[in-house]
Amino acid sequence: MAQKPRAWQRMLSGRRLDLLDPTPVDVEIEDIAHGLAFVARWNGQTRGDYAYSVAEHSLLVETIFARIAPRAPAKWRLAALLHDAPEYVIGDMISPVKAAVGPDYRALDERLTTAVHVRFGLPASLPVRVKQQIKKADRVSAWMEASQIAGFSEAEATRFFGRPDAALMEGLSILLRPPVEVRAEFTERHAALLREMA
Known about the structure:
Layout: E1 8-10, E2 16-18, H1 29-38, H2 54-68, H3 74-81, H4 87-90, H5 95-101, H6 103-119, H7 128-148, H8 154-161, H9 166-169, H10 179-197
Antiparallel strand pairs: 1-2
Helix pairs in contact: 1-10, 2-3, 2-7, 2-10, 3-10, 7-8
């Protein structure tokens, strides 16, 4: 009798996360921060001595989200920080790959997102307006990344991601740092937002 393929991953925390049925009790911020700090955006096709990690991207998205929605409560800033959290398990697939994989990828992403949200006191599904604002922040970050480190011209980045409002990017830059530094900052930012929510 054929054995069922393994659908869980052992985390460094010792948790065993079932990808087909993830539960909030198996989600730990240390695992998320570690995974995202070591997952490269743009399939690693970026300039610099370090990969541009999903954790670094998430920190930037949260900063931009706070500019888009300056009166947003800490819980929505936390949602922005965690917007790509499932990628600590499934990696960062570029949009063309997601399109090729189809609805199965989206279903997996949604299951993991729900578990992460519930674990940290967020609603399983975010309000539409908040999702739109986070998506806008994500696109601003993508434009900055594309034009600064991923080899896109500004015109090409604008064609794919739209030209962002300059005020949303003022004083911000793309940081390339060792994963351990990014992991520590991500974890600290998560803790700070949870304190604000308490």
